[in-house]
Each structure stands twice: as structure tokens, then as C-alpha cells.
Design goal:
The structure is a homodimer of 406-residue chains.
Chain A (H helix, E strand, L loop, with lengths): L6 H18 L3 E4 L2 H8 L4 E7 L5 E6 L1 H7 L3 E4 L6 H8 L1 H4 L6 E5 L6 H12 L5 E5 L1 H9 L3 H22 L8 H14 L18 E5 H4 L33 E9 L2 E11 L4 H20 L6 H14 L18 E3 L6 E5 L12 E4 L2 E4 L3 E4 L2 E5 L4 E3 L8 E3 L1
Helix pairs in contact in A: 1-7, 8-9, 11-12
Pfam families (chains A, B): Creatinase_N, Peptidase_M24
Organism (chains A, B): Paenibacillus montanisoli
InterPro entries (chains A, B): Creatin/AminoP/Spt16_N, Creatinase/aminopeptidase-like, Creatinase_N, Pept_M24, Peptidase_M24B
Chain lengths: 406, 406
Amino acid sequence: MAEAVRHEEIEARVNRLQALMSKEGVHAFLVTQHVDLYYMTGSMQAGYAFIPATGAAVFYVRRSLERALQESAVRVQPLTSLRQFRAQLESDHPAVFSGRADGVRIAAELDVLPAATYAKLAEVLAGSANDCALVDGSSLIRRVRMVKSPWEVARIEDAARVVAEALEVSVGIIREGLTELELMARIEYEIRLRGHIGMMRTRSYNMEITTGMLGSGAAAAVPSAFDGPAGGLGLGPAFPQSTSRKAIGREEPILIDIGCCIDGYIIDQTRTAVIGSLPDDLAEAYAQSEAIIRQAEASMRPGTAPESIYADALKQAADAGLADHFMGFGTNQVKFLGHGIGLEVDEWPVLARGFGNPLEPGIVLAVEPKFTFPGRGVVGIENSYLITDAGCRQLTRSPEGLILLP
Amino acid sequence: MAEAVRHEEIEARVNRLQALMSKEGVHAFLVTQHVDLYYMTGSMQAGYAFIPATGAAVFYVRRSLERALQESAVRVQPLTSLRQFRAQLESDHPAVFSGRADGVRIAAELDVLPAATYAKLAEVLAGSANDCALVDGSSLIRRVRMVKSPWEVARIEDAARVVAEALEVSVGIIREGLTELELMARIEYEIRLRGHIGMMRTRSYNMEITTGMLGSGAAAAVPSAFDGPAGGLGLGPAFPQSTSRKAIGREEPILIDIGCCIDGYIIDQTRTAVIGSLPDDLAEAYAQSEAIIRQAEASMRPGTAPESIYADALKQAADAGLADHFMGFGTNQVKFLGHGIGLEVDEWPVLARGFGNPLEPGIVLAVEPKFTFPGRGVVGIENSYLITDAGCRQLTRSPEGLILLP
């Protein structure tokens, strides 16, 4: 069994959320999403966690109550009836509901909560008093989750070890004619044996990721709906991204952008391999991706704005004459250099315009400079880093450099 | 490359949705979810499909435009700016917006669309005229998707073949001491090699499924948040369902409830295996699960109400003295016998109370009678069936009966 989240850990998370809630004039948070529930209680059972701006949180559980009682670091109560939920909350948290002339403001994660469920919950919470607004608290919870504890970083490092081992074992099978799908299947088998939960959780609507993006040559360079620097041909119109059935050839880049999820925490890493050698211009572009990640490493520290790291990378790519190829090609370019990772693969902050709040210790970032050459392939590198007090520390463990295969 | 959806197929789907829209007084449907987009256009690129109650649908695509143009059976337009979207729609679909004294009713899938995105889209669609309501159309699209075409059934049959092959290859590795995770990893490897997209799509909020539920003995009988008859111990509090690291032992049931997704379509199948033999009472319960599925087969035909099939199964389980063990144990029982499958694993109808609309040809159902014995295990069977003009036809292909291993 995986190590359970410690009570002090959960208490610190709840306290940080409560501090943000008080600042934003939110009287309580109704946590609805399973990943947020796990983060805030230590348990992923079905129900709602109610966190008042001051006072103790309660996890109202539909099922399984037994498991929630074992797992949760906050008090567990059965959620017997949604119709009685408002009365139950008023009774358990009188300070939230009483004496508010301007009404009660309860936050939830409106970035993920379906509109129909939102409408139902808003009605339930308003009750007959009709004094309660259900407002968007997704930015609050994303800001809290953005900063990882040492306990969380240790989980991410476990995932980093698993991906490095899986990559090391799997590159050995690469030969001309092996299909992308055969290689991906092998990597997925290796990470699964080592405890990968079998999926990579994402937060964005319609965003899917299996274990990453593995593609070779022209197939890797095909654009897709996926909001990442490499799309990939995919398995057909019903899964039009990432790995395809294309056979891997000689002297074309093999992009191996893979992650895994161990004990709930995700790692993200990219390496580029080739059978034989890369054409000079692609080899040069790969070298540029390493140069850009070196520059990012030098600027990642508390106080740096994420958007400035992205701007620097754009300039570096342009200076190298690779502006059109950076992070996708032409109109299919994506507008970021990296992203937060943790329980989900698309966490905050993003290394992109609009992310001006300075980095702080505990943030974990996947940085993924890549260059796309339509009809030829994608080259690049991706490491994940922890922002420390003084700078950053790399969490991904696979050796860098092009992986040259005979 | 997978076979593309034919144009006539898409046209028929759009026509069926339009018929329902007209009946329900909906003037247009804004399709937002990637799976629904694939169903309604043949393409899963990012954007929105706008389907007027009469007239031609248009797929407004953000990215990748190139791929949407190749894949989509409905007309593709670039979606340049959300701010200009209302004007673009008015210009392309004047009949939807003009001369409506009571306002324009546009439907979307509010069962999956996040509340924050809903609010933004409602504002965009209302425009300055503020004459437009964004209403819930999820039941319309779920009703259309519920009835499969022969083309879709052929895809589901492809998935059924893959699962049967993977199971046949994988049971050969089962021996005392093999962990559930090792067995699951092998099955997943086999289905992936054969084209599984790497995930099983679900529609319900917070509902996750890897490739199913594989569990042995006591671990399989642990309840979970998952809305299925067997929960499973899982890999820890961050993935508290399905497969665990427990070693498989002798004379305990091994529940192998697995699916896969080929060209977007899902199959769902369960078999029960054992090393040695099962204790008499568990063997008897397994036999009851086959008896219940035989009874369901006899009643599955156009005209039968799904809820009556569930009621019959409850009675049959009670008559066998197994009421407390049926579809989970005690307070952790789930309240259904089966569910629709297709592009998602949790489709309509459900064989459960409240589903009174009679079955019709083209519905595909996974029927999964199971019995849970806390501390001992779960036994059962699951087949998937197509409702035909005369009755039903089984789509799953693995031989029935307990899988007895030496």
C-alpha cells in the first residue's frame, strides 16, 4: 500500500486555502473534484469536502464511507441526502451561514464542475433562505496546489525514477521497422509494472493524454488538437494525437515525451532518439533545445516571472533562426515553454505570457523546448524541476543528449 | 489508419439529433465535448460544432484546422475569435437567430461542460441582443448516441476481438504469487499492441476507469467510490480502486473485468478465473451469475423496459439466497445490472430503476451480474450485447464458464 498523506500535511494545505479564502471574501469552499478531494483530505472517495474560511473541514462522503474513514485526515461524515445537505452544513458550520447580510459566498472548482451539477449544487446550497452564491474558487485551489511540499516532491521523484527506468529498458528494443505503438506499449508496460496508476490526470476540458507523446519522423510533426508542442498522427480520427502505427525509420528523430503517475503524482520527461544519426539541421535544433533548457535553468528561481522565461526562450529560438519551428510549426505553434505538474499534468504556473506572478519555492515545472519540422519530425528535450530557495533542482533522471542507436 | 466515419453515417446522426431538437423546442445545438464532436462530425479536433434544428451543421475549429478539413463530414470553418463567434453564427445561420420573440434556445451538453466555460459561452451566444438561452441538451445527444449503427457495431466487435485475444494470451501467465498488477499490466500490453487507444473514456464527473477492474480474493471485494459492482483495493489512496499489488492466491476468485477502446469504441467483458477450484458457495454464486445473464438474454429485445430486466435479476438473486451479495455487498451495493457502451463506457440506457423506455434495435448493453463476498472475493460474468430486431446478439467472444487454472 502506498504511503498515506500525513495529517500535518493536509492541515497545512487546508490552512493555506483558508488564508486565500479569507483574502478573497469567500466564506467556505465546497471541494467537488476527486483530485482536489484527495489533495484536501487525503482520500479520493465520492462526496464533497466543506472547508469553512475558519474552523475545521468536514468530508461528506457518499461512498465508500469505510475507506474514507481510513484514509481521510479531515473529519468524515456520511452524506445521506443531497436534499438535507444544506441543513447538515448549517448545523455543522453555523458560523458560515449566520449573520451574513450580504449573503454567503461558497466557492467550488467551476473550471471542472459540470454546469448541470453546478446548477443543482447552487440550488441545494441556497436552500429556502436563498442567501448563498456558489462562486468560482478554481484559481484559489490551483494556487494552493501549485506549491508542493517535500512530501509531494518525494512522490514526484518516485515517478521520475520509474520513467527513467522504463526508458532505459525500452530503448533497447528500438530497431528499424518497430512501430511507434509497439514502442509505446512496451514503455507503458514497464511503467505500469512499477506502479503507474494507468492514467495521467488532466484538468482541462477535452484534454486527454495517455502516457505522453511518442512519435517518429513525419508522424510526430503532424499537428493536433492537443495543446502541446508536438501533436502526433495518433491511431485514427477517434484518437488523433500521439503514437501511431507508423514504423520507425533510420535517421529520423524519435520523440519520446513520456510521463507516469505514481501514488497520484506525475512526472513529465522528453528525450530524442535516432537510429543512425540526425541530419545536421535537426541535430543543430536538438542542440538548441538543450541550450534553451540551460538558459531556463539559469533563470528559474524565486522571484523570476514565468512569462519572462518564456520570452527569453522565444528570443533564443529566434536568434538561432528557428522561430517558425519552435513549440510547433507555423500556425500550429503553442504559446508556452513549460507547465506545472503535480497531481495533474496541466497545473500552474505556465511558462507563458500572462503568468507574471514570480516563481516561489515548491513550484514544480516541466520545461519542454521542442522544434517541429513538418514532414521530418520533432526534436527536443523536457526536464522537470523543483524551484528551491536558491534556484532550481532537476527531478528527471534520464541522461541528456541525443540517444544514438545503432 | 483507422477507417473514417462515412458521410452518410454522420448525416443520419445529425438528422436524428435535429428531429429530437425540433420536438423539444431547441433551435440549435452547440456541441462542445470532444467525444460528441467526433460523433457528430467524424473529427475530434478542438472547436465547436453548431447544429441548427434545420439546415446544415458547421464545425468551427480552433485547431487543427488541416486535420478537421480531412476528417470532418460536416462543413469546417475556422474559429478565429470567441468574441466574434455570435456574429459568425448569425451570419452563417440566420434562420436560428431571426424573428424569435421568445428568444433563441441553444442546447449544449451541460452534463460535461464545466460551469465556468458554460458561463462564458452563454455570454458569447447571448451577444448584445441578450436573446439567447444556453440550455441542457445532454439527454438529447445521449439518446441519439444510445442507438448504434451497423458501422459502430462493427467497431465494437473489433474491440471485442481484441479483448478476447488479450485475455486468452494473458491467462497463461497466471500462477500463485503473480500480482494483480503484473497480470493487469500484461493484459493492457496485449490490448495496446492491438490498437487500444490507451484509455477508456467516461462521461460522469470524477469517474475514472483504466482498462477495467482486475482483482483477486479479498482485494477485489473491497468497496470503492467507483460506481460498479466490484470496487477493488487499488494502488493506494490516490488510486483507490481496481488492481492492487496483492499476490494472487489459490482457490480464490480472480475477477477479470476488462475492456478496451479500438477506433474510439469500447467493449466491456468480465470472466472469473481460479487457480485450483472455488469453494462450493462461490462456485454456486458464479453459476447464478451465468443463470442471471441467461435470463437477461431471454428478455433483451425491442419493447422490454431496461428496469424490468434489473428487477428480474434482483428477484433471481434473492431467490438464490444471494440478495445481500448481488452487485456489491450490503450498503455498498450498486443499483444496476448493466449499462450502455459505445464511445464511452457509461452510456445509456442503464439496466436500473427509472429506465422505463423500451429497448430498441441498435442499443448495445454490457450486462454484468456479480456477487461480492467480503474478505473472500467477487465472482461474476459480463457480456456485451446488441439489441436486434428480434432479440439480442452477443458481441463479446471469450468462452464462458469459470476459467480453471492448474
